[in-house]
Amino acid sequence: MGQKTHPIGFRLGVIKDWPSKWYAPKKDYAKLLHEDLKIKDYIKKRYKVAGVSKVEVERIVDKVRIKIHTARPAIVIGRKGQEVERLKRTIEKMLPGKEVTISVVEVRVPELDAQLVAEDIAAQIERRVSHRRAMKRAIDNALKAGAKGVKVQVKGRIGGAELARKEWFLVGRMPLQTIRADIDYGFATAYTKYGILSVKVWIYKGDVLKGGKEEILKKIEEEIMQAAKEEG
To answer: What is the C-alpha to C-alpha distance for residues 110 and 186, in angstroms, rounded to an integer?
Structure first.
């Protein structure tokens, strides 16, 4: 049997960061976790057309900082920041007694964001676009944007077939067991008249070397020079 692991969870603390940053005693942990899930779910549903990739939550005592990554920041911010202020007031009602700060971050290249790509494919399938066409178009766009490898999978009653199956395409490299490989992962659900289809997307953007490749090479050169001086 295949042993699968989440591509982002596998790299947490090495090249990926946590989407929620806070500490809580055991008795409060479940409550705060459900608060985070409720906030993220609400923002995703409220700004469905804004292309929200992810929502990060950071808690410091009674302060809650929310960072929204979106492909269309203007929709979330609104005219003169009115929309983001309305969102802030709504979330403060959900979290009584806590000070809420919201910041909006633009996703500059949506074609390289696996979550946005997966949601786009799911939306096309719901509009009865051919799943193969949607998958191949997403792969082409990601490769043009600079991806080194893309894998897309659709699973379920594809095309209304009686038996569920899965179809996938892989173009380029996808080193899933290499921890330094920067692999973005996204999952979305397409609701069709025949049932639910799952869409998974993996995008490989290259390797991440701690400190940067140039710094590592410079450090190696300095060590070689130091060793040469000591020998001389």
So the answer is: 12
The H or E element containing residue 228 is: helix 213-231
**Residue 214 CB contacts under 8 Å (≥ 6 apart), including other chains:** none
In contact, 91 and 57? CB cutoff 8 Å: no
- In DSSP terms, 60 is beta-bridged to 63
Q: Which long-range contacts (CB under 8 A, 24 or more apart) does 48-53 make?
A: 49/75, 50/75, 50/76, 51/107, 51/110, 51/116, 51/119, 52/76, 53/107, 53/110, 53/113, 53/115, 53/116
Contacts of residues 118-123 at CB distance under 8 Å and 24 or more positions apart, as own/partner, are 118/186, 118/187, 118/188, 118/199, 118/200, 118/201, 119/51, 119/186, 119/188, 121/152, 121/154, 121/188, 121/190, 121/199, 121/201, 122/188, 122/189, 122/190, 122/197, 122/199, 123/190
3-state secondary structure of 180: coil
Q: What is the mean pLDDT of each run of 10 residues along the chain (232 residues)?
A: 84 89 93 94 94 94 93 93 93 92 94 96 95 96 95 94 94 92 95 94 88 57 68 60
Q: Which amino acid is at 123?
A: A
Q: Which residues contact 36 (CB under 8 A, 6 or more apart)?
A: 20, 57
Contact in structure between 50 and 72 (CB atoms under 8 Å): yes
pLDDT at residue 212 in the model: 52
